[in-house]
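Forgive a beginner's question, but would it be possible to get a protein, spelled out as residues, together with the matching structure tokens, please?
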Amino acid sequence: MNFLACLSITTGLVVSSSLPATSIFPLLNRSYDKTYTLDKTELTTSNPGISAALPPVYFCGESVPLHEEQVARRLIRALVSNAVQHQVLYQIRQRAANFFPVIEPILARHNVPTDFKYLPLVESALRGYAVSPSGAAGYWQFMPATARELGLRVGAGHDERRDLIKSTEAACRYLTYLYNRLGSWTLAAAAYNNGLGALLGNIRRQQQRDYYYLRLNAETGKYLYRILAFKELLSNYRSYEGIIPDRVMASLSRPLSSDKDAGADEMLIPEVFVEEAVELAVRTGNRESATGGVSSEIPLPNAADVFRGGIKAKLAESAGLQRGQVWVFHLTRDGMTDGRQVEAGDILYATVEDIDPKTDKVYLRADRLYSTSNKQTYNLALAAVDASTGRIGIRVPDVEQVKAGWILTWKAL
């Protein structure tokens, strides 16, 4: 169910002078096993230095046993990992400021602890159009079947996993179900990631109901620590001076933008016109497809114009190789298109207008572009073209090509 992998750990750790370097660095440098477990037999000795460096931490009212060396070490590793790219962390803070006021009342209405508002930060970085390789999507990263079981509509033209309010309501129903089965919010969080059946299997085999002592797969073993890391960084970061770098501390104390929509541009603003684009694609289809009676090989006036007047955009997210699906592209450089200046980073929302199995071509059309600099949406008509010929339609002999990083050329129609 997880989409957003934790940021990789890099150099840049700063250790407070009050805490000897040897009390933290050896802990972080120890290698991990393929399974995460805390063996009580290994806890005959403790490390008072590392425990003293950390404040008390709680998850849903349950105390995190930071007096245990390995628990403290894993939390520090998660804190450092989440804090490495401070610019990304600032964007996540901005999104949280915009969306937590929506999420919190829903959690309260369902009697789900407020700490679960940090879970979608781990799952999707609070990006509604996040899609995992396994097909999980939306803020809470539900698989299609799970979403439908929870009452969400999932279809080619409408996907309620991308609706913040409806998907949060569904997440609350699911978390409440998990809590009722497991009796612990900590275990409910683990089951959200690993699945109830898999977690119950581990509990039965190991005769252990404490998350911190269970032997779990690496992802689930890290999962709660990643949630805790976001909670601490966003609500209690000053307690970790000397553990996270000074530049990250500066980023965490940096005032957020006063613009209500700042940081939300990839989640809520485009969703209205994305739905319109999907409906239009499903209703009208592709008028230039070979199956529509008009040759798909009609060239643009001059193929060389592609390189002079076209723009390049890199695929960020694809919802699937199906007609009506919306793909998200980010422009790779500044340029001009349809008489308008565009900039690298602007967001292009393209609809899969048609797929021609005879030629293995996919036809992508974009009607609007969202400017990240001035936060406005512009109407324009663009089509993805074959850069070698200037013709509309992109040949996709291998579906594996359709993944993040795929760069296409776009031309105004």
